[in-house]
């Protein structure tokens, strides 16, 4: 159903971006990058947070960065990552397949500036074996994403 909600979202918005299904899981940045033959940075990871003001939000970032807690707190205040059950309930997507499209519940989408290093990204498409190639500009337009700077480069190798 989650993959189907992404397909419906794209159809409703006139997006002609084929959903790529792989025989293996692409639930991590490393496995997704290997399966699609791209750098980890070109994988768009979608993270869900609950903020101290009661809002639940999504942050989409490049696969080769991590949330910088200081930047996050300055931008959003206190927050914590949502647990798997809450992620599924709010997004309709399983952990490892979360994307900012076809959401079960409307959520604010924030796009980290790390995405701007690429013209095209590969976020998941609602399942742990799917992705979609989409321009960063189209992702921003479709999600009505707000640009933020809440990430820093990782200090370890992803894979």
Can you summarize this structure?
27% of the residues lie in helices and 28% in strands.
Describe this structure in words.
- The relative contact order is 0.25.
- The protein is 27% helix and 28% strand.
- The chain is α/β, with parallel strands linked by helices and 159 residues long.
- The termini are far apart.
- The chain has one domain (2-153): YbaK/aminoacyl-tRNA synthetase-associated domain (YbaK protein, Alpha-Beta Complex).
- The chain has helices at residues 2-12, 29-36, 69-76, 84-91, 136-143, and strands spanning 19-21, 43-51, 56-62, 65-67, 79-81, 108-112, 120-123, 130-132, 134-135, 146-148, 151-153.
- The strands form 3 sheets. Strands 2, 3, 5, 6, 7, 9 and 10 form a 7-stranded mixed beta sheet that branches. A two-stranded antiparallel sheet has the order 1-8.
- The model has no long low-confidence stretch (mean pLDDT 94).
